[in-house]
Design brief:
By secondary structure, the protein is of the alpha+beta class. Helix content is 22%, strand content 32%. It folds into two domains: 176 residues, Probable tRNA modification gtpase trme, domain 1 (Gyrase A, domain 2); 80 residues, Elongation Factor Tu (Ef-tu), domain 3. It has seven helices and 17 strands. Strands 8-9-10-7-1-11 form a six-stranded mixed sheet, with helices on both faces. A six-stranded antiparallel sheet has the order 16-13-14-15-12-17. A hairpin with a 5-residue loop joins strand 14 and strand 15.
């Protein structure tokens, strides 16, 4: 049986929201249904500009009276500053919480057994969140768990995990996120996409029933009028050169004009790179999408693990 893996997610950060009006504030700023997010559950979501372009994608959950937003570390400080501008007199405090917690990803068949051994319990359903004495634990799509542990408890948890799993670098977790079809907006792709262009609506990150939030009108119009021409695809590319977020894609359908953009990429265990890319639907369906140039390396489109 293949051994489970664990990774310290050093490139992932946390923002924490506290205060009596934290839920109300976040509900009016984010694409997901914060008011309807039940305790003990997490959700994906986006923070957008007024034009509906994504500034960040994230995982959000509630812990007691606090909300935690997980996103790439490079975006923590700028997103904190942007959101803080809109707090005004609201009873909300946003803080950079990355220094207080360690984030550990655990993956593989029966990984829940290993998580339970390390922290005392493991969530059963996807997006379920539980609290133990030493950590918050979230179950994610694709036989994956995240342990968000206080710094004091991190060493002991890692010791337990190391006895039952192989240590992997953060890029391996990025590859697992890619294979699960979960996009991560980075500085290179900020303001490049509306949420539907990266499938956020397909993974529960957009509510079309809630009230206004920045960009809501454009996001809703694209949904209800059926004007979406670009979607996110899972793909692979051979070779040893690494695709980079923001790299352009080309196809015969669009000639010298780019038909898509790479969102995330990571080295695949069997060679080459797997990636998530937002591509014009017409180009993806016709095939022949290429990286970097019209005659560049060819992409192989792979099936996503959810309905597209």
């Amino acid at each position: 049986m293949e051994k489970q893996t664990y990774s310290e997610l050093s490139l992932t950060g946390l923002l924490r929201f506290d205060g009596d009006e934290a839920q109300f504030f976040l509900h009016n700023q984010l694409s997901c249904d914060v008011a309807g997010l039940a305790p003990g559950h997490s959700t994906y979501g986006a923070y957008c500009t007024a034009k509906g372009r994504m500034l960040a994608s994230f995982l959000l959950w509630q812990s007691q009276q606090s909300y935690f937003m997980q996103l790439p570390s490079l975006l923590c400080e700028p997103i904190q500053k942007l959101l803080a501008k809109f707090i005004l007199r609201s009873k909300v405090k946003v803080s950079h919480a990355s220094g207080d917690w360690s984030i550990i990803g655990v993956a593989g068949k029966d990984a829940g057994v290993l998580v339970q051994r390390a922290v005392g319990d493991a969530p059963q359903g996807v997006h379920e969140v539980i609290h133990t004495r030493s950590a918050m634990v979230i179950r994610l799509p694709g036989d994956r768990y995240e342990i968000i542990a206080t710094r004091d408890n991190t060493a002991g948890i890692l010791d337990t995990l190391s006895a039952g799993a192989n240590r992997a670098d953060p890029e391996h977790w990025e590859w697992l996120e890619i294979r699960a079809g979960i996009p991560a907006i980075t500085p290179a792709t900020q303001e490049a996409f509306v949420p539907q262009m990266v499938n956020l609506d397909l993974i529960g990150g957009v509510s079309f029933e809630k009230g206004c939030y920045p960009g809501q009108e454009i996001v809703a119009r694209m949904h209800y009028r059926g004007t979406l021409k670009q979607r996110m695809y899972l793909a692979s590319v051979a070779g040893t050169d690494s695709p980079i977020p923001g790299d352009k894609l080309y196809s015969a359908t669009f000639g010298d004009q780019a038909c898509g953009t790479i969102i995330n990429a990571a080295r695949a265990p069997d060679g080459g790179y797997d990636l998530l890319a937002s591509i014009q639907i017409a180009s993806a369906e016709q095939g022949g999408v290429r990286w970097k140039a019209p005659a560049g390396p060819a992409l192989k489109i792979l099936p996503l693990p959810y309905q597209s």
